[in-house]
Design goal:
Oligomer: single chain
Strand order of the largest sheet: 3-2-1-4-5-7-6-8
Distance between the termini: 35 Å
Strand content: 15-25%
Length: about 280
């Protein structure tokens, strides 16, 4: 296998010189901006982010009794919504490399918190029924290493759900996407927070989205890690929900398609995604 085949994006040499330098840079960035993250994300998503995170986990099968691992949990936004589905935080484990982000998350729910990276997780094999990652896939150093770890820690039949934002393929949608995330969002972040750390965090957020590999590479990396029923669910060409299952069967089902959504899901798309279609 080619060494760089499954990088989430090429090294951003403006910030670090090689892939090896990426983790330390990203940790510093999110440690510095952690206290601003929730506020920035809330108004940036028009206050629809909480509903969408909960809806996505419900649609993909998270249910009471499941043991869930939230990788790159950040400030706990995915985990908080998982708690509403499970009815408890007892079975939730949150993993993140940034102590600053974990410090914020610990104030929200009584889950188990572990500092660590997705590429090398300190958990036993077959430990979890459900694994989530919300808008952080671009921050790992290797899709291959990350997905092999996901496969290792999931129980047979366990499911992985990865939420991401994907650049629209259309010219008009891509223009508004670049305008909002590349310029307006970082500028408003600085205006509202008066924090260059928060602005730099959101500027890097945009840079990784712009440089990220296409969805086909993510799907191929999931298959290469041994997952089955590998899918990408698209919402208005902007949001990607990557899902896959750990199975004993050696049959691969690889699809990239639209699924039917509830009225509430469609309303979310209309509120937040219309400009990027």
């Amino acid at each position: 296998m080619e060494p760089d085949k499954f990088l989430p994006h090429p090294p951003l040499t403006e910030h670090y010189s090689s892939t090896e330098g990426k983790p330390a840079f990203v940790n510093r960035l999110f440690d510095a901006g952690a206290k601003y993250y929730d506020g920035v994300v809330e108004w940036g998503s028009l206050r629809s982010g909480s509903f969408y995170r909960r809806s996505a986990q419900e649609r993909h099968g998270l249910k009471p009794g499941d043991h869930i691992l939230d990788v790159a949990c950040g400030t706990g936004l995915m985990a908080v919504e998982a708690t509403k589905i499970l009815g408890t935080a007892e079975n939730i484990t949150c993993l993140d490399p940034s102590e600053g982000m974990l410090a914020v998350a610990r104030t929200k729910l009584p889950a188990k918190f572990v500092q660590g990276r997705a590429e090398q997780m300190p958990f036993d094999e077959n430990s979890f029924d459900f694994l989530t990652m919300g808008y952080a896939l671009r921050h790992v150093t290797s899709l291959e290493a990350t997905f092999r770890e996901y496969h290792r820690v999931l129980r047979p039949g366990g499911k992985v759900l990865i939420l991401e934002i994907t650049k629209p393929s259309g010219q008009v949608g891509n223009f508004f996407f670049r305008l909002y995330f590349g310029r307006i969002y970082p500028a408003l972040t600085l205006l509202f927070t008066r924090s260059h750390a928060a602005r730099n965090m959101m500027r890097y957020y945009w840079e990784t989205m712009d440089a990220c590999v296409p969805p086909t590479v993510v799907l191929d990396a999931l298959r290469a890690a041994g997952f089955v029923d590998v899918k990408r669910t698209r919402m208005l060409g902007l949001f990607s929900e990557y899902s896959a299952v750990k199975s004993k069967e050696l049959i691969y089902n690889y699809t990239d398609d639209f699924l039917d959504f509830s009225f509430a899901d469609s309303l979310f798309c209309a509120m937040y995604g219309w400009a990027f279609f």
